[in-house]
Amino acid sequence: MKVLLVFAHPDPRSLNGALRDVAVAELVAQGHEVKVSDLYAEGWKSEVDRTDFPALLDDQRLIPVAASKQAFNGNTLTPDVKAEIDKLLWADVLILQFPLWWFAMPAILKGWVDRVFAYGFAYGVGEHSEARWGDRYGEGTLAGKRAMLIVTAGGWEEHYSPRGVNGPIEDLLFPINHGILYYPGYEVLPPHVVYRVDRFSAADFTTAAEQLRERMRTLATTAPIAYRRQNGGDYLIPKMQLRPDLEDPGANGFALHINGAGN
Ligand SMILES: Cc1cc2nc3c(=O)[nH]c(=O)nc-3n(C[C@H](O)[C@H](O)[C@H](O)COP(=O)(O)OP(=O)(O)OC[C@H]3O[C@@H](n4cnc5c(N)ncnc54)[C@H](O)[C@@H]3O)c2cc1C
From which domain of life does this come (predicted)? Predict the structure, then answer.
C-alpha cells in the first residue's frame, strides 16, 4: 500500500520523532511505499489568508469557503496545498501523528487540514439538495482509503477512560476522526494513543515501539470504527438526525453515530 504520514512535532529528536521513525521503518519493512509530510521541517504555513487565493482580486472580500471553491475548481490553489492534495490522492492510507496539545492537534496540523481539505475536494462534494446532503461521512473524494491517528498524551490512560476527568479519548478525538477524516470518505481505524509519555523511560519506549509496529503490520486488516454512513439510510434528510430508535442501548452523544457503540 501507499502510506502518507503527516507529522506535527517541532523536534525530530522528540519521542514523536522516534515513534515516527519506528512506524516508517516498519511500513517499509512490510513492503509499503511511504511519504512523510513533516510540517515543521517544511515550514508549513498554518493560517488561511489571502495569499492562499492568488486569483482573488485586490478589492474582493475574502470569503474562505467561496475562495476555496473557486481556487480548487480553477486550479489556482497554491503549490504547497496542491502538493499535499496530490499526496492524499496517491496514498491508500493517511496517518496523522501528533502530540496531544490542549486536548487537540497542534495548530500547525489544524492549519494543514484547513488549507488542504479544500471545497470541492474534501467538502462541498456531491449533490446538495433536500434529498441528499452531499457525498460525506463515509462517501466523498477519499472514500475507499484508510486513515488513523498516532497520538501521544501526557495524561494517563485512566484519565481518558469513560469516567476519567479528561473525558473519554474517543470523544476528544471524535471531531478529528469523524469530522475531519470520515467526512471526506476515509475508513477510520481506531487511534493509536500512547499515554503518560512525559516521563517515558527507555523500557517504556521499547514497549511502545513494539505496540506501534504491530499497528503498522495490521494497517490493512484492522477493522475501522463503525461510523454510520450519512447516506446509508440511518439519517433523516435534510434534518441529518439519526432516525428515532436506531441508537444502540445506552448510546448517546457522539456514540450515537457508531453502529454497535452501546453494546
Ligand atoms: C502546549 C501543550 C499542551 C498539552 N496538552 C496536553 C493535553 O491536553 N493532554 C495531555 O494528556 N497532555 C498534554 N500535553 C503533554 C503532551 O501531550 C506531551 O508532552 C507530548 O505528547 C510528549 O510528546 P513529545 O514527542 O513532545 O515527547 P518528548 O518530550 O520528546 O519525550 C517525552 C519523554 O520520552 C522520553 N523518551 C523515551 N524514549 C525516547 C526516545 N527514543 N526518543 C525521544 N524521547 C524518548 C524523553 O526522554 C522524555 O522524557 C501538552 C503539552 C504541551 C506542550
Answer: Bacteria
Q: Which residue has 470523544 as its cell numbers?
A: 171
Q: Is the pLDDT of residue 262 over 80?
A: no
Residue nearest to ligand 1 atom 42, measured at CA: 15
Residue 255: is its pLDDT beyond 70? yes
**What CATH number has the domain bearing residue 41?**
3.40.50.360
Q: Is the CB of 40 under 6 A from ligand 1?
A: no
Nearest atom (ligand 1) to Cα of 18: 42
Total count of domains within the chain: 2
DSSP 8-class letter at 231:
I
Q: Work out the angle at residue 35's Cα, subtended by the Cα atoms of residues 114 and 68, and round it to the nearest 5 degrees.
A: 20
Task: Residue 178: name the closest of 88, 87, 259 by CA.
Answer: 259
Ligand 1 mean position, distance from CA 87 (Å): 28
Kindly give the distance from the C-alpha atom of residue 194 to the centroid of ligand 1, in angstroms, as a whole number. Answer: 10
pLDDT in tens, 106-147: 999 999 999 999 999 999 999 988 878 999 999 999 999 999
- At 248, is the pLDDT very low, low, confident or very high (cuts 50, 70, 90)? confident
Residues 148 and 206 in one domain: yes
Structural domain boundaries enclosing 145: 2-129+138-225
* Ligand 1 center from residue 155 Cα (angstroms): 10
Q: Using 50, 70 and 90 to split pLDDT, how confident is the model at 64?
A: very high
- 59 with 170, same domain: the answer is yes
Is residue 97 in contact with ligand 1, taking CB distance under 6 Å? no
Least confident of 17-26, 141-150, 167-176, 244-253: 244-253
CB-based burial of residue 147 (10 Å sphere; 0-12 exposed, 13-18 middle, 19+ buried)?
buried
